[in-house]
Amino acid sequence: MSVTITKHKKMPITSSAKKALRASKTKRVYNLRIKANVDSSIKELKKLVVKKDKVGAMKLMPAVYKALDKAAKKNYIKDNNASRLKSRISAMVKKIA
Predict the structure, then answer these.
(1) Whole-structure pTM value
(2) Per-residue model confidence (pLDDT) at position 37
């Protein structure tokens, strides 16, 4: 005798819970967009650092800074986290010979 266990997602019942679900779905889209922007720009910069392309990395740094600042402004990441990432990125670029 086998027992199948199914996970049921709890659906909102009250009107405020329904509204909160709609809001969280909307916020999720924005957060994913911000995350993609931050991750892709940092990844692109790291590729240039690995290639030791200092000029290209220096040109890309303002775009990375902008993505991090926007993420911090939208509360996707905290301000100190953005500052720390910017510091580490600049240190990576400075290390290139």
Answers:
(1) 0.78
(2) 96
